[in-house]
Amino acid sequence: MSEYGHIVWPSANEKIWEFDYALEGSPAEEGIAIKRAYYRGKEVFYKASLPSLRVQYDQNYTGPYKDPLTYDNAKFYPSGSANKVWVYGYTSYGLRALVVESFHQISWYKLKCRWVFFEDGHIAPRLYSSGIIEHKNHRHHPYWRFDFDINGASNDLALEYNTYTPNTGWGPGWHTKSHEITRVKNPSSNRTWAIMDKSTGRGYMIRTGPNDGVADSYSQSDFWVLRYHSGEDKNGRQGDRWNDKLQDYLNSEDTNGQDLVLWYCSHLYHNAEHDEGDEWHFAGPDLYPFRY
Q1: Whether residue 187 has a cis bond before it, omega within 30° of 0
Q2: Per-residue DSSP letter, 120
Q3: Which of 103, 92, 87, 258 shows the shortest CA–CA distance to 177?
Q4: What is the spatial distance between Cα 165 and Cα 171, in angstroms, rounded to a whole number?
Q5: Nearest residue to 113 via CA among 68, 65, 149
Q6: What is the C-alpha separation between 207 and 191, in angstroms, rounded?
Q7: CB of 81 within 8 A of CB of 100?
Q8: What's the DSSP call for residue 155?
Q9: Residue pLDDT tens, the chain, 292 long
Q10: Strand ranges for 25-108 from DSSP E
Q11: Are 76 and 93 a contacting pair, CB within 8 Å?
């Protein structure tokens, strides 16, 4: 089974956000997928989702695991609801926000797939996690896939910021990524990524979230710039518990002025000694618009 919806928020007379969402059953395994998203009438995503969630315990005490988020393991939410996707609003520091959220249970893991859309264009994709299978330290590695279509599918450009990069024509610290590439986070240089439509200069920055960690020997990268190919969207069936398999898509294709897909991975550390598994932890990047 599946659950679908169309959102115009906050109203038809004031369209700040408009998009479709879907939470599908197996074999689709990508949590809540956001589709054809528009911010103030301008296109942002063709599709955004969480296609992979891998879990590794210290010293491989158990697992590793790959935990698909599907309609099948989602709960009716909130309790007593007839739906598995909860849509609600709130206000934070004076900004209105729209939330689209699902609650999943896999063995002893409790997981929330949450998308927050703020009225200023900020998007906060989040994975919340609690519960443990074994009382051992472990890390959750959620992989978000962002198929941006800024002002349409084509003519997009990926950029990276570091404090040490000279001005190469894109502003101090920014340089382009003109071929398919994978990158790791670098907190010391405030490393940030962006995607921009070349014709309008409009785009989104992707900033590391506060609990996102850095790649390790198990999940070896943090960010991928890929040229869009429909066959590479496997609806959550990328990789397995041992390997994310995203390296298979890297073949140095030109990404300058193309239809691009950006992948982002968090590494959410859970110290089992500090709680009994009931404490909620969260990870996820922050996406900020510019020239919208």
Answers
A1: no
A2: T
A3: 258
A4: 10
A5: 68
A6: 8
A7: no
A8: S
A9: 999 999 999 999 999 999 999 999 999 999 999 999 999 999 999 999 999 999 998 888 888 999 999 999 999 999 899 999 999 999 999 999 999 999 999 988 899 999 999 999 999 999 999 877 677 888 999 999 999 999 999 999 999 999 999 999 999 999 999 999 999 999 999 999 999 999 999 999 999 999 999 999 999 999 999 999 999 999 999 999 999 999 999 999 999 999 999 999 999 988 777 655 567 889 999 999 999 9
A10: 32-39, 42-57, 65-66, 86-92, 95-106
A11: no
In the block, tokens 């909860």 appear at 86
Phi, psi dihedrals of residue 163, rounded to the nearest 5° = -60, -25
CB 223 within 8 A of CB 207: no
Which residue carries 């296109």 as its tokens?
A: 43
* CA dist., res. 27 & res. 121, Å (int): 32
